[in-house]
Design goal:
The complex is a heterodimer of chains A (249) and B (279). Chain A has 249 residues and is of the alpha/beta class. Chain A is built from eight helices and ten strands. Chain B has twelve helices and no strands.
Amino acid sequence: MKLFFHGGGCGDSCCLRVQDLSVKIGSDQILSGVDLHVHCGQLVALIGPNGAGKSTFLKAILGQVDHDGVIAFSSPGQRDRRPRIGYVPQSPTFDPGDPVTVADLFACCMSKRPAFLGLSKAMRKTVLACLERVHGEDLIDQRVGTLSGGELQRVLLALALEPLPNILILDEPLSGVDVEGIGMLMDMLDEIRKTYDLSILMTTHYLSTLEKYADQVVLIDHTVLAQGTPSEVLSSLAFAQVFHRKGGV
Amino acid sequence: MDVWYLFCRLLPIEMLRWDFMCNALLGVLLMAPLFGLMSTMVVTGRMSFFSDALGHSAFTGIAIGSLFGLASPTWVAVLFSLAFALLFSFVRSRSDHTADTLIGVFSSTAVALGIFISTLGGSSFTKYNKYLIGDILSIAPGEIGMLALVLAAVLVFWVFFSNRLTLTAIHPQLASSRGIPGGLSQTLFTAAIAVVVTLTISSVGLMIVNSLLVLPGAAARNVARNLKQYHLLSVLFALAAGIAGLVISYYCGSSAGAAISLVMAAVFAVTFCFRKGRK
């Protein structure tokens, strides 16, 4: 994987630059010739039909799949360090019977002390501070398997925000969340990126949220077909062709 | 051991007049936390069928050891179980079959090989009966020492690896996205199951050993609300069932392994009844 920091070209405001990215799995060409710039503090939404390669694109950025092309990061004031990426995976489901609370989940991810011994006071305080970012302090002692779709996304978001990342990547964060929860989650993401000055890259099928929240929309179907502001992409010929051909989203 | 025997004699308990019962009690006190602890991960990681298959492979290892004329074929069984577990993990990572199909393939092959070897040249299978039923009353001080070492090793492993094991078991994709490697801890846990099953098979029996790896965790899962309660209850249930089962077997003259397993099943039934309404 080619991974390096880049400067210039975007006036130092470019947080992630992807150039001529291609991914091949077996004999299937999943992505080819993908170019994308994400500027610091932006919320960028990836849209496209099922099987377009959106999740694969995110995995390439995370370094979880082999790829060709360039993925470059820059982060103001942290040029000598690898950028931190927070990731919320797609369709996270937990067994409702597993006796694992939200606090246990955080401890398993963040603490060196074994979670089965219980949380130290300091760790519990840290978990509460993390959950406060997503207004979820009351969820700390609930079992993860009993959380609703929206609550679980908030918990995983809180987990992805510790330590605070430079880029937050979310794969279909709105799937499994009810209509009321979608607005709440998007408001929260908007608040988080403004408060912590981080970039957000997310895939979504909920096009109605784009106009209000996204700075940039990228239409992908194995390659980038259109990118720009939400209104530019949603009114583009490529958008009409893709979604009419595929029968909508 | 002399100190232990002395301690047992001081207790006003009739069955502890016998050295073999003192040995059995100490064996149970070491085995119970071992099974209780590992049971939590076997249940959470949906590995109960796999641990059952490991028990069968241990029997095959014992048959191979006996074939080569070894008086104590346990170590051959440990090695065979380890090889079985690692080969299974290797094939599973490179196959599109589901885990239960592959476990069925490996388990049946191991059993067939074990029976084939043990009956080779018209040999009688009878001498292997003790491995099927097990006899904790004949546990030797050397085996107890080995159990203590294994318990210490598993405790150390648990301290360092239980967090990542739990995360990998409940959500492998999340663990992977956090950069938590599941491979090493999973392999070590698999190896630990292989060693524990093989070392205890002559005490509790092939047919029962798996129930001790599943029931404590399953019963604790019925009522536990968090990981701490889950581990604590699983170990306590295993200890209580171990001691109660030993006492029952002493007075009924039946297999201790079976009695322990039955008490555990009763604990599961009781906790299942109290399962409703928990949040």
